Structure formats: structure tokens, C-alpha cells
Amino acid sequence: SYKANREEQPEDIAIAFPYIRQILQAFKIPIIEVPGFEADDVIGTLAKQAEAEGYTVYMVTPDKDYGQLVTDKIFMYKPSRQGNGIEILGIQEICEKWDIDSVDQVIDMLGLQGDSVDNIPGIPGIGPKTAAKLLKEFGTMEQLLENTDQLKGKQKERVEENKELALLSKELARIKLDVPIRFNAEDYILEPFDRDWLAEIFKELEFRTLAEQILGQGEEKPIVGTQGSLFAEEPTVRQDSGLAKHSVATRNIETDDHQYHFADTEAAQQVLLKRLLAAETVCFDTETTDIDATQAELVGMSFAIEAGEAWYVPVPAKREAAQAVVERFRPFFEHKGIEKVGQNLKYDVTVLKWYGVEVQGRYLDTMVMHYLLEPERRHNMDYLSETYLSYQPISITSLLGKKGKKQLTMRDIPQEKIVDYAAEDADITLQLKDYLAPKLAEEESLQALYDTMEGPLVKVLADMESEGIRVDPEFLAHYSKTLAEQIDALERQVQEAAGVAFNLASPKQVGEILFEKMNIPYRWKKTKSGQYSTDEEKMTEIARDYPIAADILRHRGLTKLRGTYVDALPKLINPRTGRIHSSFNQTVAATGRLSSNNPNLQNIPIRTPEGREVRKAFIPRDDQHILLAADYSQIELRLIAEISGDQAMLEAFQSGRDIHRATAARVFDTPYDEVDRDQRGRAKTVNFAIIYGAGSQNLSQQLGIGRSEAKELIDTYFSRYPGLKEYMENTVDKARENGYVTTLMGRRRYLRDIDSRSSLARGNAERMAINTPIQGTAADMIKMAMINIHRALREGDFQSKMILQVHDELVFDAVREEVDRLKPMIEEHMKNALPGLKVPIVVEMGTGEHWLEAH
Hints:
By secondary structure, the chain is α+β, with helices and mostly antiparallel strands. Helix content is 49%, strand content 11%.
């Protein structure tokens, strides 16, 4: 019973594993798993294979067993512990640590002395010193066992009685080097990490220092008691429905029969076009020069009609010749009766828009289909292919080389060398559709969600990305100078107050100045490195009594604002259009919410006057246009009233009363018209905090009251809104029964930890169970509104464009003459995105010469 002495894995560690996996994925660090083998064996096998290919290998581990693998090219990289610093152990260091002559003797040492952690028995009575002494004399365990006559007394007796045990122990200590896995250097080339995903994880786990060190900025901490912070994205630990096979890829282009054709002549392309037009369903993919669809040029297109066969069509570099090839296939792309299959179709559709082609027909996007089935997993093609088809696609680095300045583009590669890579993409994506489509069809609600929402939304988002939004670089340049002056003034002010010049960007120096030189009381634990913590939470508390801390916080905020937004936005202006084209992410948030990047529109700050000023940079495309913003009012609170069915809350919304004032009247037992500003503010905090699952301790901190008073407030709240309490309890019970929760439109979110023995993990899952139907339904509503508005804009012959979606808000680049006709249409579709609701939906709208004015 190897390792039988090991204690059962602590649940806190089990809880941490999904987060660890997610962090690694966000860092784009490969995760290698081989069923039936331990990490030691996988690392050992890969280390030896890499060494054989000429690589120098570092095994990051404190485990002494790995010493047996060390060579002149394989090292142990022992992480720092308790301030001791890292250690890199080569042959000399391993031999010195074990007091042996060769690293080959490490497993002999383990066999002789044993290892209680791994349940390796060893020989009773032999410890490290005795084992080292015996190996110096006999060289190996086998030599020792063959020459026991040279031993004396008890030692001789123990060794002879435990010969078989000793040999078994040595074998147990040996790391296996024959794991069925192949080292491919291209699989381990580091890619740029996903900043947005990493920021989201760090924010959830409150890793503020890591966020500052790695992302170069502190993550904004939500302001408690606001609608925006209440329904901020829930934790995104990647869980699943059990659909994934977790297959090890055993197939590739060399093992599978295939027919990949190079259609590089007009005649061949005409023959292909006839086949495409005769098909009901076709998968297509584009090869381009850029990952930004709004700046990419076509290099080639690939098509697949049946599994195992695909065509690659090269596209010339010169625009006129390229357009001619695209025109040849326009009848296929714009044929409404042919289903178009793709992986991340939004990209390909957007690329083709720059060639004047509007891809028509039903979209079957494998990435989006998988997102609905497995919202918490990855959705890239390589992952899907390896997981569901056990097929390892050709690596892009095999064509372009390692990422970096010397990496080639598709344009640099001879077209005939692209054929297999491009054709395989179309072929494998078609096979993924054939696998995922039946799975989706088995789930009626998810199929309906794809057909009515997520599928049509791909086209909507492609059009929005193509439109983009104009920004005013002159305004940003002027504002950058203004911020720089404010930052410099704050820096001088802080240094004058401290009586010494120091670097405000250094947490270490800030801590020493505040808590040593100025003797400001410090009542928290220091960091692991022995520094004072100067994160936002602690600095905010200190700022109540010490103005210097408030100035430092303001300095940090303005510095981040200037660097992250004001100076960064002009660099994102597309040279083709003169506008910014944010990329909308449809398959990231498990709740169904859209996100965006380049830039991340959701993170443009609106909580401070300086942050709101950034919105002035977003302007209409010309003098004939004006920005129009339409925003759902208190949508999550309205939806929880709807979903819970609480009569008191429904009545408050139906009567048109202010929900926070109505809550204050009920909770504080005060007539509605006599509720004061303070009571309303407290009621607003209570409304959001309790619905979000805040307990008495959390609420007491938010309101600055005692815990018993907070508990009494919670009890009173639920007595006034009993339907809300019942909803929360029933929702958690259903989540335990089903393993997931759903939105009103049937979107699912799986909750792996809903029955966890860990109160922390279980509580987190319970809060997600309560919140996801609310936040997810709000996300579904605005998506349906976008689809319906997009259709109405086309059918109504509008020239105005929908250009942004941020939280519960839609932004339009509106033709001035169309505004009066546009507003009622937008309001109607937003209000009626989810028909049949009891609670009234309110949409607030405004127009302006910039986004701030419109909002």
C-alpha cells in the first residue's frame, strides 16, 4: 500500500487546486496530466527526454526524491522557504546533501533509510548517516546485500532479515521514466499571459500585491454598497458538467487518414465552389496576418464538408488579386441556406467584412457551443480537439517559430506549407461540430439558448467590433498633462508631509516612511518578506486619521488612471479606421456576461470624477452623429424581485416607488415620505449586501455598526421580505439537488463545491447559486436586446450603429436626424427582451457629444 501512511488530502488543498489550475491557465503555463501516473514520473520522463534533445532542465520542487534525476543538464530548483532563498542543486550539491559519491546512490539511500512520508519502509534501524556510511563502503544496495558477511552484530542481522524489504524500498523510491508521453518543445513555449483573466483571479483572491507586481497595477477594489460592486463577476473557478473526456491525445495528422487539397488555381477553386454550394453545412477558417481581425489581411481560406477531407485556398498578398479570390467565393459566404461552421466565427466573419463580404446563413460556432455545455472550461480548438477527439493538431509554432520578434507571420510562409495546417483546422472544427451538436441537442434549454441568443449574437458582435468607436487623442494628450501635474503636486505634498524624499511607487519605502519614520500605528501582520502591507484596504483605514495616506492613495489612483487608460487609449487607435475596436468576449464569464479587451471597456473607471473624465474621450464619428447611451435601471434588483416573487418588493417596483426608500420605510419602520437621506443610504447598502449573501459581520463593517445590530437588521429585513429569504433557501436546495443553477432562459452554471465540507467553499458556492440566476438573467436580457435592436436597425433602414456594450448599458453612434425614431425602438426592445415579467423594466437614455455626457 504505497503511500498508505499519507493523510487524506486536506479539503482546503482540494479547494485550492481549481484556483491553481486557473492561474496556470491564465499564465498560459502548460498543464500536463497522464492518468495513472504521479507527477514525479511525468516530470522525470519529460526531463530525461528534454535532456536527450539537448535542453538544460530545471525541476521546480523541494522533494528530495528528485535528486536521483539530477545530471549535468538536469537540476533541482528548490523554491524559497521561510526566507531561505532559492536553491539550485546540481550533482555536487546533491552529493553533498546526501553525503554520497554519486547521484545514482540517491535511490539506494532512500531504499536503505526509507521515507515515512511516501511509506517506503527501508531497513529498520538504518538512518541517513548509517546509510551513507554503508554506501561509501559498498557502493550500491545490491553490493551491500551480497556482502552482509562483512557486517557485524545487530546491523548484520537487520540487513539480512530485510533483504527483500530493502529491494522493494529501492524500487518504490525509483521515479519511473517510461510514462507514455512525448516531449515536444513547442508545447512549452511561453506565450503572453491573459492579463484580464489573471486580474480577475487576483481580484477574487485579493492578491493585491501580486496584481501590482505582475500586472503593474493594483486592482480596483469594489466599493461596497453599490449596484456595480454587488453584482460584479462571481468567482470563475473552472468547474464542469462531466462532459469532458480528459483524453490523452493519441491521434495526429500522421496517424489519421486524410485528404487535404491545395486549390491554388482558378479551375480548382471553381470546382471547390460547386461542391460548397451543393452542401448543406460547410466549415470554413481563415489564415491571416494578425490576431486582430480589424487589422488582419487574408493569407488563405480553408473549407471542409466531410470529416477527413478539406481544401486550402491561398489568397495573394496584393489587395486587388486577393479581392478577386474572395469574390470567387462570395456566392458561398453570402448563401443564406448553407450552415457555416467555425471555431470563433466572430473573427473570420470580421476579417471577411473588410473584403466587403457579409457571411450569411446559420452560424455553428464550436467555441460558443462548448461554452454553453461547459461554461467553466477552456474553449480553444487545441483543447477541444485533444479533449473530445483525442487528436493533437499541428502546432502553429511549427510553422511560424517561437513567439517573439523573430516569429514569422503567415505571409512569410510558402503557401504550399500552410496547406496541412489550415486544412486540418477546418477538418477538426467540423469534427468537433459533429461531436458537440448532438450533445447540445440533448439539452433542450441550451439548444434553444444557442439558436435564439448565442448563435445570432456572433454576427451582432462582429458588426459592433467592425464599427468601433472614435476617440479624441487631443483630449487624452491634454488630460494626460493635467494628470501629470496633479500627480507631481501630490508627490511633493506627500514628501513634504513626510519630511523626506522617497519613491511613492515603492510599497516598501511607503511602509517604512509611514510606520517607522512617522510612527503611524501598524496593527496588521507584515508580509511574508517582512514588509509592511500598504494595500488599499489598510491605507483607506489609515487615511481616516492621517491625510498623508489619503494623498498616497490618490497618487496611486491617478498614476494608474493615466498609465492604464489615458496614455494607453491612443495607442489602440486602428490606423485603418481611426477608431478603437474593442474585442468582445462571448465565452469567458460563466454567468453569461460579455467582457471586452483592447481596451477592457468594463474597467474604464467611473467611480471617481477623474475616472469619469476618461469617458469624454469617446466621441461620435463625425458632426452628423451623436452618442446615445441606454442603460437598464437597477436591473438585478428588479430581477430578484421577479425571480423570488416577493410581494413587497414587487409592489414597490410596480408602484414606481424608489426601492431603497421603500426598503428603508419597511426596515426602519418609518413612513415612506419621512425616510431621510441617511436611512435611504443604509437601506441601499442592506438591499445589495443581504441579497449578495453578506452576513452580520460583513454588514456591520459596511455600515459601521455592531455585529448584533447588523444581525437584527438582517432579521428585520427578511421578516419584511419573506419571499426573498424563501427564494435563497430554495435556490441553494435545488443547486444541491441538481449540481447547477439556471437563468430564466435556461443558461446553466455548475457548482462543484455546493456540498463541500469546507464552509468557505460551500458558502462561496451558495452565494453563486443565489446570484447567478440574477446576474445571468440580466446578461441574457441585454444579449436578447442587442440581437433584436441589431435586427431592427437593419430592417428599419437606420444608419445609426450599435457600438458598445458595457455592464447593463448599450452605446450607439446615432445619426442626429434618427435619434427621435431611434430612442423608442431601443427602449421597446430593451424593456421587452424577456417578455412576461411582472416587474416593470426601466431603461434610462441620454445623448451627448461624448460618452460621459450621454451616460
